[in-house]
């Protein structure tokens, strides 16, 4: 009972804390469709040679922070998104691409 109360308090605290951000995949989907789908494909089947297909889990088996860094600064043919998307936006997009399988 005491454990249950502790878990409940922790869950409520997490739910109301604006800073503990779990990626919002619905917002992530909108951002993905407008900024990423042109190369990575609307359903995660890449349309550009060399771009990973997220529907096949290509290149996303890495921590969020590593992916965030690549998306922020860009990589070879991929443009940088720093200044276009906030880190929070990018984390939302990452949450969405992790659901594409
Ligand atoms: C102009 C085409 C283009 C756009 C737009 C684009 N990408 Fe990419 N992306 C690429 C290419 C090409 C690569 C492979 C880069 C390489 O390693 O050579 C890549 C790689 C990646 C990777 C793998 C990075 C890694 O560290 O291995 C991720 C994740 C990714 N893109 C996410 C995104 C997201 C999210 C967006 C939208 C915010 C986006 N890309 C927009 C072309 C694009």
From TrEMBL:
<feature type="signal peptide">
    <location>
        <begin position="1"/>
        <end position="22"/>
    </location>
</feature>
<feature type="domain" description="Cytochrome c">
    <location>
        <begin position="23"/>
        <end position="101"/>
    </location>
</feature>
<keyword id="KW-0732">Signal</keyword>
<dbReference type="InterPro" id="IPR050597">
    <property type="entry name" value="Cytochrome_c_Oxidase_Subunit"/>
</dbReference>
<keyword id="KW-0408">Iron</keyword>
<keyword id="KW-0479">Metal-binding</keyword>
<dbReference type="GO" id="GO:0009055">
    <property type="term" value="F:electron transfer activity"/>
</dbReference>
<dbReference type="Pfam" id="PF13442">
    <property type="entry name" value="Cytochrome_CBB3"/>
</dbReference>
<dbReference type="InterPro" id="IPR009056">
    <property type="entry name" value="Cyt_c-like_dom"/>
</dbReference>
<keyword id="KW-0349">Heme</keyword>
<dbReference type="InterPro" id="IPR036909">
    <property type="entry name" value="Cyt_c-like_dom_sf"/>
</dbReference>
<dbReference type="InterPro" id="IPR008168">
    <property type="entry name" value="Cyt_C_IC"/>
</dbReference>
<dbReference type="GO" id="GO:0005506">
    <property type="term" value="F:iron ion binding"/>
</dbReference>
<keyword id="KW-0813">Transport</keyword>
<dbReference type="GO" id="GO:0020037">
    <property type="term" value="F:heme binding"/>
</dbReference>
<keyword id="KW-0249">Electron transport</keyword>
<protein>
    <submittedName>
        <fullName>Cytochrome c, class I</fullName>
    </submittedName>
</protein>
């Amino acid at each position: 009972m005491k454990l249950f109360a502790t878990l409940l308090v922790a869950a409520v605290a997490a739910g109301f804390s604006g800073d503990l951000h779990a990626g919002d995949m619905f917002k992530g989907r909108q951002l993905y469709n407008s900024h990423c789908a042109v190369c990575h494909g609307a359903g995660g089947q890449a349309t550009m040679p060399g771009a990973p297909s997220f529907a096949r889990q290509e290149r996303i088996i890495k921590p969020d922070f590593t992916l965030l860094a690549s998306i922020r600064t860009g990589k070879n043919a991929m443009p940088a998104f720093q200044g276009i998307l906030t880190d929070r936006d990018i984390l939302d997009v990452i949450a969405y691409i992790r659901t594409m399988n």
